[in-house]
Amino acid sequence: MPHLQVASLKLYYKKDSSVVRAVDGVELAVERGETLGIVGESGCGKSSLASAIFRSFPQNVALFEGSVRLGDVDITRIGEEEFRKDYRWRRIAMVPQSSMNSLDPIYTVGKQMVETIQEHSDMSEREAKELSEGMLREVELPVEVFNRYPFQLSGGQKQRVMIALALILNPELLIADEPTTALDVVVQSKILRLLSRLSSERRMTSIYITHDMGVVSVVASRVAVMYAGRIVEVAPASELFANPLHPYTQS
Ligand SMILES: Nc1ncnc2c1ncn2[C@@H]1O[C@H](COP(=O)(O)OP(=O)(O)OP(=O)(O)O)[C@@H](O)[C@H]1O
Ligand SMILES: [Mg+2]
After folding, report:
1. How close is the Cα of 175 to the center of ligand 1, in Å?
2. pTM of the predicted structure, to 2 decimals
3. Segments of the chain scoring below 50 in pLDDT
4. Looking at residue 247, what is its pLDDT?
5. Of the residues 49, 187, 203, 224, which has the fewest C-beta atoms closer than 10 A?
6. Residue 168 in contact with residue 203, Cβ under 8 Å?
7. Which of these, 242, 216, 181, 246, lies nearest to 36 by C-alpha position?
8. Protein residue closest via CA to atom 26 of ligand 1
9. 97 lines ligand 1 (CB under 6 A)
């Protein structure tokens, strides 16, 4: 049984008097421990698919239907309270698009990490601090970053903090939405290697969203191509390059 199985998933938005079909019948299966890449042109629905799986929606949702199975549980059927308590961040984590700018500027990195842990677990402040410091080491940041404010960090360091925050509760599924797009090429490849290492060490199932085929070939074993709200092609990363079927993939 696949670890994650998405079927007939739709997420539409209301916009003025029309409807935007951002996710329009997605079918997808990811095995446990596998890293799947999702590529597609801007606006094809990649981030919307991520938010549909993570169940974090904007106000103007017009339709959300279909199923998202994690193991044998359809998580679209779980009440919001239970989802918030047991799934979001604990079992499913996300590094959202442009997230390095979403750190709160007025709190230190450490405070934001400790708060995230305490919101979702019964850990004491001291335990949470220890876990945070350990996690900073895992993402290869100096432990002093704990006491720093976001403005004192580089873009790459902030993105490492976001990855540390996503992984801190040891999720089984990680969705990373364009985790390296805003960074320069050298920092990008370091972050990608870091994410690959952490995914395999933790046997995490991972989804990487990107519009960059080069990025995807570094991290993913299989690649799904998204176009106009649907997955139009899924293939091993190597095959997709050698023999692309869909016109979007070819281009
Ligand atoms: N909150 C919203 N309300 C209305 N339309 C939206 C909303 N969010 C996204 N859209 C639209 O839904 C479609 C899919 O957007 P989405 O952000 O999921 O695409 P994407 O593939 O992630 O694009 P990018 O590569 O630029 O990040 C686009 O047409 C977008 O304009
Ligand atoms: Mg996006």
Report:
1. 17
2. 0.92
3. none
4. 66
5. 203
6. no
7. 216
8. 42
9. yes
CA 78–ligand 2 middle distance (angstroms)? 25
What would be the CATH architecture of the domain defined by 4-100+172-250? 3-Layer(aba) Sandwich (3.40)
Our answer on whether the CB atom of 21 is closer than 6 Å to any ligand 1 atom is: no
- For the CA of 229, the nearest atom of ligand 1: 14
pLDDT for res 215: 79
Among 216, 145, 205, 218, smallest CA distance to 226 is for 216
Copy the structure tokens of residue 233: 């092609």
CA of 212 to the centre of ligand 2 (A): 12
pLDDT at position 187:
83
According to the model, what pLDDT value does residue 18 have? 96
Q: How many residues does the chain have?
A: 251
Run of H or E residues at 231: strand 230-236
**Closest by CA position to 36, among listed 240, 187, 229, 201:** 240
The Å distance, Cα 22 to ligand 1 centre, comes to 6
pLDDT computed for residue 249 by the predictor: 66
Residue entry with tokens 């997230």: 99
